[in-house]
Design the sequence.
């Protein structure tokens, strides 16, 4: 059943700055299959967000090749082949929650009834029924982020790209949203690429954990999780979980010495 | 960083300015064409070459729209070539307008600062006066200028002071509004810090409120200085003043001397532009010296 | 907060004592002069009682003291007005007692303002009333003092007419004022404002796609906004004639640049994340313009609309100083000044002020409706 959703081959990206070239990504090889939950983890400056942005065609690679859904990232973007969730919810304050979720659908040119139906369905998926008429600034941070996930899901993509979506939230809300995200993923069999710098979050959520290291940004290790697809928060106490977490931590440690990390 | 930004904008700005000059020239040719045709018709001149025709349209004595070089020549003739004391020198007229504008600006700034400090430190004053100051921004106070001039004249106050009074009146509002905002700009964290030191009002004013209000002060001063020039020019209109840039405008409009109007206008613009520029530079130096613009 | 709740108390005490003293002085000077009869005596008694009771009340209940002081100071002011209207200031000068009482009742009014500001309440209605009442007391007293000084000192009308004179003139010349208003505001200002603002907006949208033009026009626009543009009025009069068209042209030029500069700035206000989001939706230029960048630019556009509302009135009025048909606010101001009819000038200025602030208020209201979501609006709206 597995087919490649994202194929990255010897990818590199170099920014030209006033202080000379910066190798944001170097020799990246990655193959993500349909239904995978892949976390990109690493310290600041390791290029995890840049890699996600290359997949989303928000940055252009300077070397190597990358295919998303079998086509170039640009073609995948134009075909609305993915949903993207940013670290900040980025909801429009002048639109209600329902109108925010419907925004990408309006841009795609869908008709009113389809939009309404999809908005309702996806708001239900993130448990935000009853908040359609509220404005974003009337909601808590966690609810805003859930609305932005609903907005990404409304495009109904098979691929979900998430850039530290829960990074700005407190830990209790974050745990709760992790559980909901996992349930959502279980229900829909979507492919998720998830950027984080939290080891427990990465291990708890993922089928594959890609450990990255900086200067130049490259893949240090790919840890395949043997945890069952259906998990509860309690799984974080099990020895299997801790083994995987340890391997991730070792990968991070091998990637660089901590004393030269810029925070 | 600033230098690259500066260099980046020089070419586009120059291009835009050149484009404006070009449009101006073309417009002056087009607008002056009917009159020029009329001249030729009456003189019975025929078969005028296109180049010659265009040249003629740009060199009329009382053109509908003088060409840029006519204005430039007029400005040059009336500044560099005339004696500074001559009644026909633009420098002389500029000096008169400038001095009343400067006097008014200085008084307005001082008054504005004093009033804003009083407003910030007195809640009753703030609540009762501030709404009126904000409302007064919405009304065309410049309309009051002729009356102030005439009334002060009839009281025996003449010359520089009535005009300066209008400039003061106009420049004082932006200063008050900006300074009240500026003096209130320190965030609660900084204010709380002062309170943990149990600093007196006086101390927190000098050490916190005043320094943090400076960027606001200079922003308002830029508005105030520009508007005080406008005030001084307009103040010269109603009384039939004989000297000053406003008087030149008025005289030009009486006698249809378009070139004179335009050169007075250009002079006033140069004056306003360079004053704003000076305030900007001084503001930058001061805020930089105080380490306020690192952001 | 701390400093302001301490300082006025001492100030207030001085005000009470001062008011009481002045009241006694007024009484004393009355007895000495044996003049002006009972009205001033009762005012003096009123002021003394008001100050003494007010001082007692203030230490118990701010609100009660404020209302008491407001009532008594208003009553005292009313007495003084009645006294003044029965008095012929031209023949004999007003007794000193009058001036003492003016100062005393003004002190009472100020004490009441200062008491009103001390009221701390969560009630929205009370706060709403207070935000109107406090500046209102101040404004009314400014007019009162103006009235007292001009009438009591018999200031010549060519210098400064009393507010009552201006009011009379206002009521008696409604047809003239209305004709001037129509000529200047409805014809010149509104036409020029709409044309200038739309032109600035459209040009901003046009140059939005060219970073080169933006980089060039923005500094030039900022510079032009600082120039004395009203000076083009004589030229516009020559080009477009004496009627309202030339004034509208001045207004167009004056309002164009603030709108241009603000719209361009507003169009670049959208954050990086928002623009990226639009990119992930593969939105085209117009979609991201209408769905994201224009709504983000609205606060800037309204800022320009507000600035321009004042500029437009100034432009039209000043342009009329350079020649008009025999109607218009600027025309009326300049000719009546020449005829020394200063009360008519003031009436015209009052109309201009009212028109200006209503115009501004209307746009501010529109802004509140259109940008209800903006943080600056939310804090005041709730």
Sequence:
């Amino acid at each position: 059943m597995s087919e490649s959703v994202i194929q990255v081959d010897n990818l590199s990206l170099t920014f030209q700055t006033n202080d000379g070239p910066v190798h944001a990504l170097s020799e990246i090889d990655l193959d993500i299959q349909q239904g995978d939950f892949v976390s990109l983890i690493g310290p600041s400056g390791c290029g995890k967000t840049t890699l996600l942005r290359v997949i989303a065609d928000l940055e252009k690679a300077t070397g190597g090749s990358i295919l998303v859904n079998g086509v170039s990232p640009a073609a995948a973007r134009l075909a609305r082949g993915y949903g993207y969730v940013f670290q900040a919810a980025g909801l429009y304050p002048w639109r209600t929650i329902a109108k925010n979720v419907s925004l990408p659908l309006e841009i795609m040119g869908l008709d009113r009834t389809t939009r309404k139906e999809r908005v309702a369905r996806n708001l239900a998926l993130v448990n935000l029924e009853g908040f359609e008429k509220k404005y974003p600034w009337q909601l808590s941070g966690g609810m805003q982020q859930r609305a932005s996930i609903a907005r990404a899901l409304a495009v109904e993509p098979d691929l979900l790209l998430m850039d530290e979506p829960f990074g700005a939230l407190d830990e209790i809300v974050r745990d709760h949203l992790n559980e909901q995200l996992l349930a959502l993923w279980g229900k829909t069999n979507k492919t998720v690429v998830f950027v984080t710098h939290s080891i427990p979050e990465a291990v708890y959520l993922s089928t594959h954990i890609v450990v990255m290291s900086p200067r130049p940004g490259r893949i240090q290790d790919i840890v395949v999780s043997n945890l069952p697809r259906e998990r509860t928060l309690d799984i974080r106490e099990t020895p299997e979980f801790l083994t995987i977490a340890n391997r991730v931590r070792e990968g991070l440690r091998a990637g660089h010495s901590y004393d030269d990390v810029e925070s | 960083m600033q230098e690259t930004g500066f260099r980046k904008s020089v070419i586009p700005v120059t291009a835009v300015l050149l484009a404006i000059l070009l449009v101006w020239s073309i417009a002056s040719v087009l607008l002056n064409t009917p009159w020029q045709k009329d001249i030729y018709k009456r003189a019975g001149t025929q078969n005028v070459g296109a180049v010659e025709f265009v040249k003629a349209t740009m060199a009329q004595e009382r053109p509908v729209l003088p060409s840029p070089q006519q204005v430039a020549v007029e400005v040059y003739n009336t500044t560099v070539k005339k004696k500074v004391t001559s009644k026909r020198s633009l420098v002389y007229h500029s000096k008169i307008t400038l001095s009343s504008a400067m006097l008014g600006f200085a008084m307005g700034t001082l008054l504005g600062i004093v009033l804003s400090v009083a407003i910030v430190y007195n809640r009753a004053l703030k609540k009762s006066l501030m709404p009126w100051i904000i409302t007064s921004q919405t009304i065309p106070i410049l309309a009051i200028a002729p009356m102030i001039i005439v009334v002060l004249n009839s009281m025996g106050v003449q010359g520089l002071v009535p005009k300066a009074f209008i400039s003061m009146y106009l420049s004082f509002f932006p200063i008050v509004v900006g300074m009240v905002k500026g003096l209130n700009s320190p965030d609660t964290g900084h204010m709380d810090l002062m309170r943990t030191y149990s600093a007196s009002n006086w101390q927190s004013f000098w050490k916190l409120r005043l320094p943090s209000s400076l960027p606001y002060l200079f922003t308002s001063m830029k508005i105030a200085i520009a508007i005080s020039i406008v005030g001084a020019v307009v103040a010269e209109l109603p009384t039939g003043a004989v000297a000053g840039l406003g008087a030149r405008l008025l005289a030009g409009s009486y006698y249809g001397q378009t070139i004179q109007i335009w050169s007075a206008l250009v002079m006033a613009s140069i004056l306003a532009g360079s004053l704003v520029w000076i305030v900007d530079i001084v503001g930058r130096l001061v805020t930089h010296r105080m380490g306020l613009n690192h952001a | 907060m701390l400093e302001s709740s301490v300082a006025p108390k001492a100030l207030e005490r001085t005000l009470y004592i001062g008011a009481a003293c002045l009241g006694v002085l007024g009484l004393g000077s009355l007895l000495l002069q044996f003049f002006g009869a009972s009205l001033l005596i009762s005012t003096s008694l009123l002021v003394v009682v008001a100050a003494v009771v007010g001082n007692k009340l203030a230490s118990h209940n701010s609100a009660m003291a404020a209302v008491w002081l407001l009532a008594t100071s208003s009553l005292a002011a009313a007495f003084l007005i009645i006294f003044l209207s029965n008095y012929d200031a031209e023949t004999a000068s007003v007794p000193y007692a009058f001036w003492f009482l003016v100062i005393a009742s003004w002190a009472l009014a100020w004490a009441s303002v200062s008491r009103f500001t001390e009221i701390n309440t969560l009630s929205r209605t009370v706060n709403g009333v207070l935000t109107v009442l406090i500046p209102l007391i101040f404004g009314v007293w400014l007019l009162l003092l103006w009235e007292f000084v001009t009438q009591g000192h018999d200031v010549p009308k060519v210098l400064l007419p009393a507010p009552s004179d201006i009011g009379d003139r206002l009521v008696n010349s409604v047809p003239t004022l209305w004709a001037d208003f129509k000529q200047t505001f409805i014809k010149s200002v509104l036409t020029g404002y709409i044309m200038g603002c739309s032109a600035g907006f459209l040009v901003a949208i046009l140059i939005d796609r060219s970073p080169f033009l933006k980089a060039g026009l923005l500094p030039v626009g900022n510079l032009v906004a600082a120039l004395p543009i009203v000076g083009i009025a004589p030229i516009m009069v020559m080009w477009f004639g004496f009627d309202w068209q030339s004034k509208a042209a001045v207004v167009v030029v004056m309002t164009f640049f603030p709108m241009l500069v603000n719209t361009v700035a507003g169009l670049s206000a959208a954050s990086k994340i928002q623009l990226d989001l639009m990119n992930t939706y593969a939105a085209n230029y117009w979609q991201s313009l209408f769905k994201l960048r224009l709504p983000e630019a609205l606060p800037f556009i309204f800022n320009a609309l507000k600035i321009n509302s004042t500029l437009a009135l100034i432009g039209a009025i000043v342009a009329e100083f350079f020649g008009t048909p025999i109607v218009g606010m600027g025309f009326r101001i300049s000719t009546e000044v020449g005829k020394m009819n200063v009360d008519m000038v003031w009436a015209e200025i009052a109309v201009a002020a009212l028109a200006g602030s209503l115009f501004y208020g209307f746009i501010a209201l529109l802004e509140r409706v259109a940008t209800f979501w903006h943080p600056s609006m939310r804090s005041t709206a709730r």
